[in-house]
Design goal:
Length: 326
Amino acid sequence: MFKALILEKNPEFSAAVREVDDSFLPEADVTVDIEYSTLNYKDALAITNRSPVVRSWPMVAGIDGAGTVSASSSPDWKPGDKFVLNGFGVGEAHKGCLAQRARLKSQWLIRRPERFSARQAMAIGTAGYTAMLCVMALERHGLKPGDGDVLVTGATGGVGSTAVALLSRLGYSVTASTGKASEAQYLQSLGAKAIIDRAELSAPGKPMQKERWAAVVDAVGSHTLVNACAQTRYGGAVAACGLAQGMDLPGSVAPFILRGVALLGVDSVMAPLALRGQAWARLAQDLDAAKLDAMTTDIGLGDVIAAAGRLMDGQVRGRIVVNTSA
């Protein structure tokens, strides 16, 4: 028997930590012991039932997991191997990792970088790995530290916090956008040089605005993303990876055809393994462990449902790591 956070709809929605056995697990070629998971925005959407994230019922929540392989029929993985999983529909269409055990497809797993413990890997999680994908996308576009200020929206969230820490470590001048004035010191500790109120970006704005940013990492979407594009300098780029404000894009083509701004879509869920491996290698190289600790809060599996509500209500900063045995 093992514990898992199970989401059901019979027909009413429910979320609860229950004990189940291996017969509850889906078919797949690798069985793993989950040591740590994490609470991402998408997890919170599913656990609070605020968005139709789950596509199969009943579901074990949790799009991320880190731990040890306990059984495998794959030639690529053997018992004792250390792994990290991010996305691939786990926690949505395939039972996930907010549990003490999971059964996963071998082609979804990557080897945990030696630098990171299971807890540290989940302190990074999908949010931090997505932030790295955004940084890499901007670098492929040609962004360099001397090009000017880089804006990070939703800066106190998981993606935003990690993006601030990564960009500052790489030598960029980072401006953090947040609606939480009380978190200014926290963002400065991660490396933000300047902080602006999210209200400067969250309302409808002009199609073309004063050029301010060499590049942007946006986890918010909607008017915030549109205004960020309208304020990006000639030839700059915006890496878009989130929808905290909304999925809509109520804007103009003007920044793209008059300033040559590039809008770079960043997907973490189905990214190929080669790109995932590059991102995790870069995280091992470029992420300051002290800053990672500063943005991380630890909870147990039984605390996740309450924490998901707080996250959806904007009361969480940084990353939440879930100790599945606590």
